[in-house]
Design goal:
about 210 residues; mainly alpha; transcription regulation; DNA-binding; transcription
Length: about 210
Amino acid sequence: MKAPSNLITGDVRTKIRSMILTSELKPGQRLIEDDLIQRLGVGRTPVREALLILQGEGFIARNRGWEVQGIDHLQVHAIFESRVAIEAETARLAARKISPETCDALAALIEQMEPGSDLPRLAINRLNTEFHDLIVKAADNVVLAQFHERTQFYYWALRIPVMFSDEQLSATNAQHRELLAALRAHDEERAEQIARAHVETTRGIVEPALPR
């Protein structure tokens, strides 16, 4: 039985969005329909429909063809201010509702993100995205999830590569461990505090690396 076209389009949109959020598709990169068709193994119509949806959501733009949307570096400070508020509230709600199974899944991701695993940066980005997405799901708030998705896109849309050192990766993953401990204990206040500190740590790494 053939799948409805709207379901196929939704799946294509999700896959392309994921590639953008993990920097597999980078800001300013051209998106060629034929390449996406071959890469995703789907027809032209769902690819075109998915691109139109992603354009409406602000993930891609048309500039003599499709390209991944970028962002003005002057907005970086505002992006992090938004992430602090959203991720702190997300962590607070997750601490109230999270299951032991989700906590175990988070612990497994933390282990994989430890420095020295020889994982490429793209793989670490994906694991980090999965880690925070699980917390968003645990918070179980659709509107907050939408805000989180948008700020996450803005962050990965930064046009310069910011390479975290092993020491910085170790520090951020230590905060992941602290956050998980608070979530397991259902300590809402502690989870909120750690989430705020976690975003501030990332800001302290990213902002000084931006061109002046």
